[in-house]
Request: fold
Amino acid sequence: MVEELVPTDLELVARIKAGDEGAFEQMVRRYHARIYSLSFGVLRNAEDAEEATQDAFLTLSRKIGTFDESRKFFSWFYRVALNAAYSRARRRPALPTVAIEDHLPRFREDGHLAAPEPRDWSVAIEDAAAARELAARAEEFIAELPPAYRDVIWMADVEDMTAAEVADVLQISIPAFKSRLHRARLYLRQKLGEISNAPIRREAAG
Amino acid sequence: MKHDEMTCQALILKFLFEYEERTMPEEDRREFEKHVSLCPPCVTFLSTYRATGKTLKMLKPGDIPPTLADTVIAFVKARRERGK
Reply:
Protein backbone atom coordinates (compact mmCIF):
# COMPACT_ATOMS: atom_id res chain seq x y z
CA MET A 1 0.00 0.00 0.00
CA VAL A 2 1.34 3.40 -0.88
CA GLU A 3 1.31 5.70 2.09
CA GLU A 4 -0.39 8.99 1.32
CA LEU A 5 1.50 12.06 2.48
CA VAL A 6 -0.48 14.27 4.80
CA PRO A 7 -0.60 17.77 3.29
CA THR A 8 0.51 20.68 5.47
CA ASP A 9 -1.90 23.46 6.39
CA LEU A 10 -0.30 25.73 3.80
CA GLU A 11 -0.61 23.12 1.05
CA LEU A 12 -4.29 22.79 1.87
CA VAL A 13 -4.66 26.58 1.90
CA ALA A 14 -3.14 26.81 -1.59
CA ARG A 15 -5.51 24.13 -2.85
CA ILE A 16 -8.54 25.79 -1.23
CA LYS A 17 -7.57 29.08 -2.84
CA ALA A 18 -7.51 27.25 -6.17
CA GLY A 19 -11.09 26.09 -5.53
CA ASP A 20 -10.35 22.50 -4.44
CA GLU A 21 -13.47 21.30 -2.59
CA GLY A 22 -11.72 18.20 -1.23
CA ALA A 23 -9.02 20.33 0.36
CA PHE A 24 -11.65 22.39 2.16
CA GLU A 25 -13.27 19.23 3.50
CA GLN A 26 -9.89 18.00 4.67
CA MET A 27 -9.36 21.28 6.50
CA VAL A 28 -12.74 20.93 8.19
CA ARG A 29 -11.91 17.41 9.34
CA ARG A 30 -8.50 18.56 10.60
CA TYR A 31 -9.69 21.55 12.62
CA HIS A 32 -13.37 21.19 13.45
CA ALA A 33 -12.82 19.65 16.89
CA ARG A 34 -10.32 22.31 17.95
CA ILE A 35 -12.45 25.14 16.63
CA TYR A 36 -15.50 23.71 18.37
CA SER A 37 -13.57 23.46 21.58
CA LEU A 38 -12.29 27.04 21.30
CA SER A 39 -15.84 28.25 20.61
CA PHE A 40 -17.16 26.26 23.55
CA GLY A 41 -14.62 28.01 25.77
CA VAL A 42 -16.12 31.36 24.82
CA LEU A 43 -19.80 30.41 24.59
CA ARG A 44 -20.18 27.62 27.19
CA ASN A 45 -23.01 26.08 25.26
CA ALA A 46 -22.95 23.19 22.77
CA GLU A 47 -25.49 24.58 20.32
CA ASP A 48 -23.86 28.02 20.16
CA ALA A 49 -20.41 26.44 19.86
CA GLU A 50 -21.58 24.32 16.94
CA GLU A 51 -23.03 27.35 15.14
CA ALA A 52 -19.91 29.42 15.80
CA THR A 53 -17.84 26.57 14.32
CA GLN A 54 -19.96 26.70 11.18
CA ASP A 55 -19.54 30.50 11.02
CA ALA A 56 -15.77 30.13 11.38
CA PHE A 57 -15.49 27.70 8.47
CA LEU A 58 -17.82 29.80 6.34
CA THR A 59 -15.55 32.80 6.93
CA LEU A 60 -12.57 30.59 6.15
CA SER A 61 -14.07 29.65 2.80
CA ARG A 62 -14.93 33.27 2.00
CA LYS A 63 -11.82 35.02 3.31
CA ILE A 64 -9.07 32.53 2.59
CA GLY A 65 -7.93 34.85 -0.21
CA THR A 66 -6.94 37.46 2.39
CA PHE A 67 -4.76 35.06 4.38
CA ASP A 68 -1.13 36.09 4.24
CA GLU A 69 0.88 32.90 3.83
CA SER A 70 3.88 34.30 5.69
CA ARG A 71 1.76 33.94 8.85
CA LYS A 72 0.86 30.73 10.63
CA PHE A 73 -2.44 29.46 9.28
CA PHE A 74 -3.39 28.14 12.68
CA SER A 75 -3.12 31.58 14.34
CA TRP A 76 -5.02 33.29 11.57
CA PHE A 77 -7.81 30.76 11.62
CA TYR A 78 -8.07 30.72 15.42
CA ARG A 79 -8.46 34.47 15.29
CA VAL A 80 -11.24 34.07 12.72
CA ALA A 81 -12.92 31.46 14.94
CA LEU A 82 -12.56 33.59 18.06
CA ASN A 83 -14.22 36.51 16.29
CA ALA A 84 -17.06 34.23 15.16
CA ALA A 85 -17.56 33.10 18.77
CA TYR A 86 -17.37 36.68 20.15
CA SER A 87 -19.86 37.84 17.57
CA ARG A 88 -22.31 35.11 18.62
CA ALA A 89 -21.69 35.92 22.30
CA ARG A 90 -22.63 39.56 21.68
CA ARG A 91 -26.06 38.52 20.39
CA ARG A 92 -27.15 37.12 23.74
CA PRO A 93 -27.46 38.74 27.16
CA ALA A 94 -24.05 39.21 28.75
CA LEU A 95 -23.34 36.97 31.72
CA PRO A 96 -22.18 38.72 34.87
CA THR A 97 -18.44 38.50 35.38
CA VAL A 98 -16.45 38.70 38.59
CA ALA A 99 -13.92 41.33 39.61
CA ILE A 100 -10.81 39.17 39.65
CA GLU A 101 -8.98 41.54 42.05
CA ASP A 102 -11.46 40.66 44.79
CA HIS A 103 -10.36 37.04 44.72
CA LEU A 104 -6.59 37.28 44.55
CA PRO A 105 -4.37 36.52 47.54
CA ARG A 106 -3.98 39.33 50.04
CA PHE A 107 -0.82 40.26 51.88
CA ARG A 108 0.10 42.05 55.08
CA GLU A 109 2.32 45.11 54.94
CA ASP A 110 5.39 42.97 55.62
CA GLY A 111 4.62 40.85 52.56
CA HIS A 112 3.32 37.79 54.42
CA LEU A 113 0.09 36.12 53.34
CA ALA A 114 -2.78 37.83 55.14
CA ALA A 115 -4.97 34.74 55.21
CA PRO A 116 -3.01 31.52 54.78
CA GLU A 117 -5.00 28.53 53.62
CA PRO A 118 -6.59 26.90 56.69
CA ARG A 119 -5.65 23.47 55.36
CA ASP A 120 -3.94 21.94 52.36
CA TRP A 121 -6.92 20.92 50.23
CA SER A 122 -4.70 19.67 47.39
CA VAL A 123 -4.99 16.13 48.80
CA ALA A 124 -8.67 16.19 47.76
CA ILE A 125 -7.76 15.70 44.10
CA GLU A 126 -6.25 12.30 44.87
CA ASP A 127 -9.82 11.07 45.18
CA ALA A 128 -11.21 10.67 41.65
CA ALA A 129 -14.80 11.63 42.52
CA ALA A 130 -13.72 14.71 44.47
CA ALA A 131 -11.37 15.70 41.64
CA ARG A 132 -14.20 15.46 39.10
CA GLU A 133 -16.41 17.59 41.32
CA LEU A 134 -13.66 20.22 41.61
CA ALA A 135 -13.13 20.17 37.84
CA ALA A 136 -16.84 20.76 37.26
CA ARG A 137 -16.79 23.71 39.64
CA ALA A 138 -13.58 25.01 38.01
CA GLU A 139 -15.42 25.14 34.71
CA GLU A 140 -18.12 27.32 36.29
CA PHE A 141 -15.49 29.60 37.81
CA ILE A 142 -13.75 29.99 34.44
CA ALA A 143 -17.07 30.98 32.87
CA GLU A 144 -17.42 33.83 35.38
CA LEU A 145 -14.04 35.34 34.50
CA PRO A 146 -13.82 38.48 32.38
CA PRO A 147 -13.17 37.35 28.75
CA ALA A 148 -9.55 38.57 28.76
CA TYR A 149 -8.74 36.04 31.50
CA ARG A 150 -11.26 33.37 30.56
CA ASP A 151 -9.91 32.94 27.04
CA VAL A 152 -6.28 32.83 28.14
CA ILE A 153 -6.78 30.17 30.81
CA TRP A 154 -9.07 28.13 28.57
CA MET A 155 -6.60 28.10 25.68
CA ALA A 156 -3.48 27.58 27.79
CA ASP A 157 -4.62 25.18 30.50
CA VAL A 158 -7.54 23.33 28.93
CA GLU A 159 -6.62 23.47 25.23
CA ASP A 160 -2.91 23.12 26.00
CA MET A 161 -1.88 25.83 23.55
CA THR A 162 1.60 27.32 23.92
CA ALA A 163 2.25 30.87 25.17
CA ALA A 164 3.27 31.95 21.67
CA GLU A 165 0.12 30.50 20.12
CA VAL A 166 -2.24 32.12 22.63
CA ALA A 167 -0.45 35.47 22.43
CA ASP A 168 -0.59 35.36 18.63
CA VAL A 169 -4.28 34.46 18.47
CA LEU A 170 -5.30 37.05 21.06
CA GLN A 171 -2.81 39.59 19.72
CA ILE A 172 -1.31 40.28 23.11
CA SER A 173 2.32 40.28 24.26
CA ILE A 174 3.92 37.29 25.98
CA PRO A 175 4.24 39.23 29.28
CA ALA A 176 0.53 40.11 29.08
CA PHE A 177 -0.25 36.46 28.42
CA LYS A 178 1.78 35.35 31.45
CA SER A 179 0.27 37.96 33.72
CA ARG A 180 -3.31 37.13 32.73
CA LEU A 181 -2.75 33.37 32.98
CA HIS A 182 -1.15 33.66 36.41
CA ARG A 183 -3.93 35.89 37.74
CA ALA A 184 -6.58 33.56 36.32
CA ARG A 185 -4.88 30.58 37.97
CA LEU A 186 -4.62 32.46 41.27
CA TYR A 187 -8.32 33.23 41.04
CA LEU A 188 -9.19 29.60 40.32
CA ARG A 189 -6.98 28.44 43.20
CA GLN A 190 -8.72 30.82 45.55
CA LYS A 191 -12.22 29.75 44.47
CA LEU A 192 -11.42 26.03 44.57
CA GLY A 193 -9.94 26.59 48.04
CA GLU A 194 -13.10 28.33 49.21
CA ILE A 195 -15.30 25.39 48.26
CA SER A 196 -12.79 22.80 49.51
CA ASN A 197 -12.42 24.51 52.87
CA ALA A 198 -16.14 25.12 53.35
CA PRO A 199 -17.38 23.33 56.48
CA ILE A 200 -18.92 19.97 55.64
CA ARG A 201 -22.67 20.20 55.98
CA ARG A 202 -23.95 17.98 58.71
CA GLU A 203 -26.97 15.82 58.10
CA ALA A 204 -29.94 17.34 59.86
CA ALA A 205 -30.22 15.62 63.20
CA GLY A 206 -33.22 13.41 63.99
CA MET B 1 10.42 32.78 60.72
CA LYS B 2 13.36 34.05 58.75
CA HIS B 3 12.68 34.38 55.06
CA ASP B 4 13.21 38.05 54.54
CA GLU B 5 14.94 38.16 51.17
CA MET B 6 11.92 37.08 49.16
CA THR B 7 8.54 37.86 50.69
CA CYS B 8 5.45 35.66 50.29
CA GLN B 9 4.00 38.47 48.19
CA ALA B 10 6.93 38.56 45.76
CA LEU B 11 7.08 34.77 45.66
CA ILE B 12 3.40 34.41 44.77
CA LEU B 13 2.81 37.42 42.57
CA LYS B 14 6.17 37.84 40.89
CA PHE B 15 8.01 34.53 40.84
CA LEU B 16 5.58 31.64 41.10
CA PHE B 17 4.57 31.57 37.44
CA GLU B 18 8.16 31.47 36.17
CA TYR B 19 9.09 28.92 38.84
CA GLU B 20 6.39 26.54 37.68
CA GLU B 21 7.29 27.13 34.04
CA ARG B 22 10.94 26.38 34.95
CA THR B 23 12.09 29.55 33.24
CA MET B 24 13.53 31.17 36.34
CA PRO B 25 17.18 32.19 36.69
CA GLU B 26 19.07 29.81 38.99
CA GLU B 27 19.70 32.46 41.64
CA ASP B 28 16.01 33.40 41.94
CA ARG B 29 15.15 29.73 41.99
CA ARG B 30 17.40 29.16 44.99
CA GLU B 31 15.83 32.13 46.79
CA PHE B 32 12.37 30.82 45.97
CA GLU B 33 13.13 27.35 47.30
CA LYS B 34 14.81 28.75 50.39
CA HIS B 35 11.72 30.79 51.18
CA VAL B 36 9.40 27.83 50.66
CA SER B 37 11.55 25.62 52.90
CA LEU B 38 11.03 28.11 55.73
CA CYS B 39 7.42 29.13 55.14
CA PRO B 40 4.59 26.60 55.71
CA PRO B 41 1.86 28.93 54.31
CA CYS B 42 3.79 29.14 51.02
CA VAL B 43 4.19 25.34 50.97
CA THR B 44 0.41 25.04 51.13
CA PHE B 45 -0.02 27.83 48.61
CA LEU B 46 2.31 26.07 46.18
CA SER B 47 0.64 22.69 46.54
CA THR B 48 -2.85 24.15 46.10
CA TYR B 49 -1.67 26.18 43.07
CA ARG B 50 -0.40 22.93 41.56
CA ALA B 51 -3.64 21.13 42.45
CA THR B 52 -5.49 23.90 40.60
CA GLY B 53 -3.37 23.23 37.51
CA LYS B 54 -4.06 19.48 37.73
CA THR B 55 -7.79 20.15 38.12
CA LEU B 56 -7.78 22.32 34.99
CA LYS B 57 -6.03 19.55 33.06
CA MET B 58 -9.04 17.33 33.78
CA LEU B 59 -11.37 19.71 32.00
CA LYS B 60 -12.44 18.80 28.53
CA PRO B 61 -14.50 21.03 26.27
CA GLY B 62 -17.38 18.60 26.27
CA ASP B 63 -17.99 15.98 23.64
CA ILE B 64 -17.46 17.02 20.07
CA PRO B 65 -20.75 16.34 18.24
CA PRO B 66 -19.97 13.23 16.12
CA THR B 67 -21.54 14.64 12.96
CA LEU B 68 -20.01 18.11 13.35
CA ALA B 69 -17.55 17.89 10.44
CA ASP B 70 -20.31 16.76 8.04
CA THR B 71 -22.68 19.45 9.34
CA VAL B 72 -20.05 22.14 8.79
CA ILE B 73 -19.27 20.95 5.26
CA ALA B 74 -22.97 20.83 4.33
CA PHE B 75 -23.59 24.26 5.91
CA VAL B 76 -20.76 25.98 4.06
CA LYS B 77 -21.72 24.32 0.77
CA ALA B 78 -25.36 25.42 1.14
CA ARG B 79 -24.38 29.00 2.01
CA ARG B 80 -21.99 29.19 -0.92
CA GLU B 81 -24.60 27.93 -3.34
CA ARG B 82 -27.13 30.37 -1.97
CA GLY B 83 -24.59 33.15 -2.50
CA LYS B 84 -24.02 32.28 -6.16
